[in-house]
# Entry
Amino acid sequence: MHESTFLILTALAAEPLHGYGIVQAVSVLSDGEVKLRPGTLYGALDRLAEQELVVVDREEAVDGRLRRYYRLTDTGAAALTTQAARLRRHAVAAERNLGLA
Amino acid sequence: MNQTLLLAAYPARFRRRHGTELMTTLMEMGTPSRADLWHVVLDGLRERFRLPAARPVAVLAAVLALVIGGAVGAAAGSFAGTFGYAALPDARTLAGQAMPAVGPSAMLNDGDTYLTVADTLPPGAVPADVAERTRRRLAAAGWTTGPVTAGHFRAATGGVELSVHAYDAPTSMLQVAGWPARPASYGWLALGGALLGMLAGWLLAAYAAHRITAGRRRTAATVLGLTGLIALLAPSAMFTWSLAYYLTVVDPVGMGGLVTGFGPSLDLVRAVGLQGYLAVNQTYYQLTVLGLAAIAVALILARPRAAAPALRSA
# Structure
């Protein structure tokens, strides 16, 4: 799983978000390290939708602007859980070998 | 750069789903810099190459389409390359240059890629002497001639090659065969065509895979589409093999029968001894038509559903 994919799923795990909301949440989650571009964001959302990890939650029109909210599916939550556990195992192993833990 | 131009980089399915929200998000992120706009365009072009996620069959289809596209492109490049070949002189003009007189017994065969001129020798003529006299005549007419060995020599001018034979068994004959030399541009056009064809093959496969994945009659369309690709594989392989054979022959005679269709060339059929259905051009023609038709029907079957699955609210 790509880092940006992981962060998008993490952002959506908290609450359904629209495109710009995801960009902002991912930026905060990564301490500003990961800045999603709109082109890659919607490409990634399409890929995640094809894998049935995210779905469209609802659509709203705000000031004539389209706001489409995405949310995690149960499959998406399961995939994120598995990946988070994997990353934690790896991080623990790294710290143990470095003598940090 | 205006909005339509930016979104034109993206495939149509993406524009329909995300065009508006992409522009909205872009504006919400602040005034985009020139670099930001370029990234939007590049991300769109990349999206065109992307296959549907978690679909191994789509990857298989895209690889097949890449190979087949390469062969089709090479065939188109090869066809374009044929226009770079030198025009052959007409047989009567060549006979006039090679022979002291063109009598009623002369056999003249014109052709675009191969011509022959032949005549019987006068009684008692020595083939080696006839060959040498013919060589001098052709040299005087402007041909660059090679040495005469055993009644045979080669000549060339302006991209046209000649092979001249004088012999007395089984009959006494002077025979001149002519063909255009393969120009360097031919190989480059075939190669360029192959690269463009591979690109087009992958892009078409990505388009078809998304259409079929999201469309109706998914199983039928998948089976038909793959069948079409497999049908196209045989003529593609035969054409590529023929092209490779023709390009590796150092001094090919004519076009080696390459421009007869999308299948094996006459030279390849002879060289590897292909027989039966494998050797018949009609077989490959039918496979090509069937393959393309199957793919077209698959795409028609896979009409988009009312709402794309990615947007279906759960």
About this structure: Chain B touches chain A through 32 residues (CB under 8 Å).
